[in-house]
Design brief:
By secondary structure, this protein is an alpha/beta fold. About 45% of the residues lie in helices and about 10% in strands. Bound molecules: 5'-deoxyadenosine (5AD).
Length: about 350
Amino acid sequence: MDVVDRFLEKRTLSQEEFVCLLQQSEDEKVRETLRREALALCRRYYGNKVYIRGLIEFTNYCKNNCYYCGIRRDNHHVNRYRLSEEEILSCCREGYALGYRTFVLQGGEDPYFTDERLVSLLRKIKNDHPDCAITLSVGEREKESYRKLREAGADRYLLRHETADRDHYHSLHPPEMHFSHRIRCLYDLKELGYQVGAGCMVGSPGQTLANLADDLLFLQRLQPEMVGIGPFIPHHDTRYAGEKAGSVEMTLFLLSVIRILLPKVLLPATTALGTMDEYGREKGLLAGANVIMPNLSPEKNRKDYSLYDNKICTGEEAAQSIASLIKRVESVGCQVAVERGDALR
Ligand code: 5AD
């Protein structure tokens, strides 16, 4: 039996076998086989629903210096901004009227946003919109901090592990960042009852197929409710300015593999995928993804949340362009769902 059949039967593989599977990502027949299986699983658990999340990029200040990221601390060309509480609440109100029932508060690791400030913000959003889920994505914090935020109303947390290989992790991050702390954060979040999202970039500098195989095995161990993956895209103000971007094909292949590995997972077709390919997100939905996260940030700030070059942020990508979003989703046989869209347990 070859490795594709074995994967379809067992829904998992050894590290060596995953490498072998990933080596076949350019084989059209293999891709199509996995894509169909992934799509069938997605339909079985989620029907043709696509969940939408209103993404509010509320601060681009960051104390970290991840080598790949456009808003890292040492990039002095960034025009730094921070939304006020009232601006964030206003984004939520606008999003609610458009049909969003999940708000994702994403930001750099900005020390201004203490537990106290975030707790106050979370309580206000929950008070205004008790039927909505709140997802936080504000990086690594201590468990006590995560506990307070959870108690104040945060339901979910996105923290990509970035890479499950310690050496690769340290090649992408400065010495003051620790692989073990990042992983610990993910387990702390799980223990506190968050729905947790992990994930990584596809094609990040130095990444090997063995690294990706380790990412898959890590995801299988962690059992996250959500997995965010997208192609690495170079940013001109980073040391990786001249590197190659990750491939759309490999990202789509991995979306299918992850859907098969974790059938009930919530899997976004990411902005990075939509940046690399005009129809990237539609292709993602056809490969097993079932979430889209349009940008709900104030128009004036969007260009300054630039993690990588050419990030789509105007026009159709915006949460406000709900009509064109619906059209795109329907063009691949799916339906936009106006609901929280919690993970199936
Ligand atoms: N290309 C693609 N994705 C990136 N991210 C950060 N920088 C880049 C880049 N240059 C991703 C990281 C992070 C998420 C918010 O964005 O995986 O966790």
